[in-house]
Design a protein that fits this description.
74% of the residues lie in helices and 0% in strands. It is mainly α. Among the domains are: 51 residues; 84 residues, Up-down Bundle (Four Helix Bundle (Hemerythrin (Met), subunit A)); 100 residues, no CATH class. It has eleven helices and no strands. Helix 2 runs antiparallel to helix 11. It is rod-shaped and about 205 Å long.
């Protein structure tokens, strides 16, 4: 095949005519060189950044490894710290318990110290109050005026040794109560009771008007006859019994009665009961019953017992003395002294 022929009006392309190099071309070259340098610098900076990033990554990895080790060590330390904390808490609880005990002991010691550190005046007033309470009990419960006086005198002597002006009112009250007690008749309760006990013990040995045993001469004769021959002893016993059938004796007073052994026993027992009843009335401060029992005992001894026997005479004298002794009195109270000592203690406590 043959190529088509060009059209007659079509001209062949023409090449552009190059212009001669100018100053613009020279600037472009410099711009390209600058661009290349900038690219080179950028590449250098990128490489440096990559190197820095790689170094930073390595450093961060090492740091993370160190942080992991530190974290593990911290966890171990934390576990140890928790164990130590629990032990410390247990010790703190124990210390708190000991502290509570120590505080209680301190309070007890302070109380004991305050008790021991009380002044001599406080102890003196406490002792005086105890003595006054004892005296009041002796008066109100037992009617023991002597015992109450002894207690009041002891309290006054204790105050005198203290020699303090602030107890002058208390000593005046004590002296007033002692004067009132000294003005009362003395009732020797213990002495009267001892005498009644002695009479009770003698009741079995007081001789009656009619003797309960054979005369001494007859008893002595029987003792002598025991050494003689049997036939002679029988004869003498027979004669003695015959003479004993009739006994003549002068009895004074004329109204005295003969008592059988059983009646004699009950007489002595009733006499003892009368004396014991008098002792009970003495302790109960029942003067009327006491004097009735004493009079009944005197009447029985006069009627049934031998008035010539010395022991009976002494018993009657003792009964007369007891009949004249005071038994019941109305003791005064010592409330003034008690109020004074309590006022003095209250004043000391306010200080």
């Amino acid at each position: 095949m043959s190529s088509p022929l060009p059209e007659p009006n079509t001209l062949p392309p023409t090449r552009p005519v190059r212009a001669p190099p100018r100053a613009a071309d020279h600037g472009a070259r410099w711009a390209a060189a600058v661009a290349i340098a900038a690219v080179a610098v950028s590449i250098g900076l990128a490489w440096n950044a990559q190197q820095a990033l790689s170094s930073l990554s390595q450093t961060a990895g090492g740091r993370l490894a160190d942080l992991g080790a530190e974290l593990a060590q911290s966890r171990t330390s934390l576990a140890q710290a928790q164990v130590a904390l629990r032990e410390t808490q247990a010790r703190v609880a124990e210390l708190e318990s000991r502290m509570v005990d120590a505080q209680e002991n301190r309070v007890a010691v302070e109380e004991m110290y305050r008790e021991l550190s009380r002044s001599a005046d406080d102890r003196m007033l406490a002792e005086v109050e105890q003595l006054l309470i004892l005296a009041s009990q002796q008066l109100q419960l037992a009617g023991n005026v002597k015992g109450a006086l002894i207690a009041l005198q002891a309290a006054d002597q204790r105050l005198a040794r203290a020699d303090k002006l602030q107890v002058a009112n208390l000593r005046r009250a004590l002296n007033g109560d002692m004067d009132r007690l000294k003005a009362l008749p003395l009732v020797d309760t213990v002495g009267i009771a001892v005498k009644l006990d002695a009479l009770v013990q003698q009741a079995d040995s007081l001789p009656l008007i009619v003797a309960e045993s054979l005369p001494a001469s007859r008893t002595g004769t029987r003792a002598t006859l025991d050494e003689e021959a049997a036939w002679l002893r029988v004869a003498r016993d027979f004669w003695a019994e015959m003479k004993g059938l009739v006994r003549i004796r002068e009895i004074a007073p004329s109204e005295a009665v003969l008592l059988s052994p059983a009646q004699t026993y009950f007489l002595r027992e009733n006499l003892k009961l009368r004396l014991l009843a008098a002792r009970v009335a003495l302790l109960a401060r029942d003067e009327s019953s006491f004097r009735d029992d004493i009079r009944a005992s005197q009447a029985w001894i006069t009627k049934y017992f031998d008035a010539k026997a010395k022991v009976n005479v002494n018993a009657q004298a003792t009964l007369r003395q007891l009949a004249e002794s005071p038994v019941s009195i109305t003791p005064p109270d010592i409330n003034a002294s008690l109020a004074a000592v309590r006022a003095a203690r209250a004043a000391r406590e306010k200080r």
